[in-house]
Specification:
By secondary structure, this protein is α+β, with helices and mostly antiparallel strands. The protein is 46% helix and 16% strand. It has one domain. The longest helix has 15 residues.
Length: 101
């Protein structure tokens, strides 16, 4: 699946996988599903996450023609919100531009 099309729960799942790797945690799909149902792991809605992503990954944000562009040198992703654009960029930096479905 193309990272540029990830949104909602699918994008949250890949951010969960990334967070588990950063924390050296062996997170499972079952843990994600359970936590997601309980209101956790909603990365695309957690606006407090955005400044950390911008700083950690040196992400630049721009509003262009009604969309948000998140970019670093060599990579960029668009979305309707700055947080989704930044999440897509982080996933692509870690897992590549295509991920498993």
């Amino acid at each position: 699946m193309n990272v540029a099309t990830l949104e909602g729960k699918e994008l949250d799942y890949w951010m969960y996988k990334h967070a588990c790797e950063v924390l050296e945690n062996n997170g499972t799909k079952e843990e994600f599903e359970s936590g997601y149902a309980d209101g956790r792991f909603h990365f695309c809605e957690d606006k407090a996450l955005l400044p950390d992503l911008l700083e950690t990954y040196t992400i630049n944000l721009q509003r262009l023609a009604g969309e948000w562009l998140a970019s670093t040198s060599g990579h960029s992703y668009y979305a309707d919100s700055p947080l989704v654009a930044a999440n897509r960029l982080v996933i692509a930096l870690r897992f590549g531009s295509n991920v498993e479905e």
